[in-house]
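Please fill in the sequence for the structure shown.

STRUCTURE ENCODING:
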């Protein structure tokens, strides 16, 4: 593959979290038989205001890069995966290292199902709370970029408000654009022909429309490939690596996937950034 080395380990972004959400949801509803925590779980579980033992896991939603577990009794668990977090699911007890939250369920046939939150770096956050508190937490996030609310008008208006800030840095603001991470931001700019270092206010309405299309393309192709795994990074709920690297056009690439020109690596607001000097202006 046409890759650049020394990229670090990008955290899971919207496509990776959506992949995990879909996999965890296949066996629902499930009744919580027991929940347990590792000795390091206090670094991850920021709030534990309700008990979910005996409750039924009805649904798993997502906003941006955050999972939203809906339990009976108006109880929720909000889970952000941080840099290295992932949820795993199995028909057998999950005993992998760095499993900090373990859930034991009973399905409709009386069989056990196990889920575990695994996080080597322990940067993830979880809140086990009532519905009212869950909504407060999720309200801190901006528009989910996979939703119908993420329109070219919304994007243009938000970029205009942020003036001289680099467009790529603005895209990473979760309070505005929930779900976009480092690789998505670079790819969205590339597919729209927008230089990531340009001032946000300089992006035109027509370019915003292209960025929306680019965002949808990145999400769709990455989800279809099971997410994006860089070295030492993300795995899905079954422990498998994603195959989305084959879809990248500039991020982690030496040559542009659209024109073949040499990709330029730079740094914007402390984040590694990739662009094509021929395709992006």
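FILLED IN BY: designer on duty
SEQUENCE:
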């Amino acid at each position: 593959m046409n890759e650049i080395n020394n990229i670090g380990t990008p955290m899971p972004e919207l496509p990776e979290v959506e992949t995990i959400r879909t996999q965890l949801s296949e066996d629902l509803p499930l009744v919580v038989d027991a929940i347990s925590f590792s000795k390091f779980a206090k670094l991850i579980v920021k709030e534990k205001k309700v008990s979910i033992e005996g409750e039924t896991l009805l649904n798993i939603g997502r906003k941006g890069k955050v999972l939203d577990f809906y339990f009976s009794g108006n109880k929720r668990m909000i889970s952000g995966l941080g840099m290295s977090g992932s949820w795993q699911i199995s028909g057998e007890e999950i005993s992998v290292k760095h499993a900090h939250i373990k859930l034991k369920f009973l399905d409709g046939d009386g069989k056990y199902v196990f889920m575990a939150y695994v996080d080597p770096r322990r940067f993830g956050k979880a809140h086990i709370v009532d519905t009212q508190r869950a909504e407060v937490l999720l309200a801190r996030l901006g528009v989910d970029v996979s939703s119908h609310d993420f329109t070219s008008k919304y994007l243009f208006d938000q970029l205009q408000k942020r003036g001289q800030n680099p467009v790529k840095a603005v895209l990473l603001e979760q309070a505005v654009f929930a779900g976009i991470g480092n690789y998505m931001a670079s790819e969205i700019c590339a597919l729209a022909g927008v230089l990531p270092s340009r001032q946000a206010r300089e992006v035109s309405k027509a370019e915003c429309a292209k960025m929306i299309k680019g965002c949808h393309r990145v999400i769709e192709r990455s989800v279809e490939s099971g997410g994006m795994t860089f070295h030492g990074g993300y795995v899905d709920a079954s422990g498998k690596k994603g195959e989305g690297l084959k879809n990248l056009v500039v991020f982690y690439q030496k040559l542009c996937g659209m024109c073949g020109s040499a990709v330029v690596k730079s740094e914007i607001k402390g984040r590694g950034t990739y662009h094509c000097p021929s395709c992006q202006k």
